[in-house]
Amino acid sequence: MKGSHELTPREDAIHAxxxxxxxxxxAQWHAAFQYALAKELKDCADVLEFDFEVSxxxxxxxxxxxxxxxxxDSPICKNIGKxxxxxxxxxxxxxxxxxxxxxxxxxxxYAHLYEYLNDSVNRKDITVSxxxxxxxxxxxxYLNKEGYGISNPETGIYYVEGLEYPFQIIESxxxxxxxxxxxxxxxxxxxxxxxxxxxxxxxxDKEGSASYIHALMLANxxxxxxxxxxxxxxxxxxxxxxxxxxxxKTEALLQEKEEIIQEKEEAIEALLQEKEEAIHEKEAIEALLQEKEEKEESLRKKEEVMHRxxxxxxxxxxxxxxxxxxLKVLRIFFTSSEQEGNYMKIQE
Length: 348
What we know:
- The radius of gyration is 42 Å and the shape is elongated.
- A seven-stranded mixed beta sheet has the order 1-2-3-4-7-6-5, with helices on both faces.
- Strand 3, helix 3 and strand 4 (126-132) form a beta-alpha-beta unit.
- It is built from twelve helices and seven strands.
- It has two domains: 11-187, Trna Endonuclease, Chain: A, domain 1, CATH 3.40.1350; 256-347.
- It has helices spanning 11-15, 29-40, 101-117, 137-145, 181-184, 192-202, 206-219, 221-230, 233-241, 247-315, 320-335, 339-347, and strands at residues 48-55, 62-69, 87-92, 126-132, 149-154, 157-161, 167-171.
- The protein starts with 10 loop residues before the first helix and ends with a helix.
- It has 348 residues and is an alpha/beta fold.
């Protein structure tokens, strides 16, 4: 793409990706990065132009992006652009990829080739930036041992001093989430809230942002499911109509949402049934306890009456044999099936 008035990657860039990108349905990270880079620098668009997938030779050698500063004296205040000169080469690595020493050397080889193939470009006009998710600790250690100075002017940005071209490493996941939302969110760890935020920010440029949102959605399917679950069929239609998701996928997610709702409703119903059964069981236990207490109280009173009767019997002037017989009668009386009634009679 050339021209500061347009921030959308050209059509071939939307479908282009690293030749190493693999599965057919894999997120097209490079096209998403191109869009994110243009959005990050949109406030400087009047002095910048963007070339994406810049072919170096007839062979498939391409630079991911070249940001051209067409007004040399104009400062770039954006944190990732403070290093900029006239021609600013970007190498991008997807979240799954690392940036090795070999990748570093390849980036500088591409910069040399770019300079060689463009007679109007001077070496002092070129900078190189590597944008990646994983901090390249091995590379930084290597550069440090080689005697190059490394500074960290801002969180997520590293400058390497002493190279033939000014070089910066941008660790996108460490960038400020407010200032660099487009690059920071370009990852496989996008939560549902952030996903909704990016969709909202992209709604005025649905066609241009399609590659970006589509990459996020393919890389973060769980968050997409949660977004749709939080929303409604209308939100799923927005995904479909904007080209963010094929119709069959929105239908599958909506069906999955309905199944989840049904499962939750059935689980709630089962819990309510279980609760009701527990209440009945509790009531039955309480009834048994009440019955036990009543029987214990009845037994206690009977024992008191029996004790008083025995005391009265011993006061009578009768023989021991008669007392023994009388006690036997009382024992039978209190243990008969009609003991309750007998007990009441004795009390009277």
